[in-house]
Amino acid sequence: MRGRSDEDFEKFVVARVQDLHHDAYLLTASEADSEQLVAHTLAELARDRVDLTQATTTARVRMARAAAHTNLPEAGNVTDLSARFRPLAALTARQRAILTLEALDGHDLHSVARVLRLSPRDVEQAYAAIPPEFTDVDPAELRRLLQDFGDLAESPDPATTLAQVHALPPPPRRPWWSYVAALAVVALTVSTLWIAQSWHDDWLRTAAGLNHAHGTHYPAYAQGYKLVGIQDVAPGPATSLDLADQGGAVMIECADDEGAVPRSGGYRVSWSASTPRTVPHRTCST
Question: Transcription as a keyword (predicted)?
Answer without folding.
Answer: yes
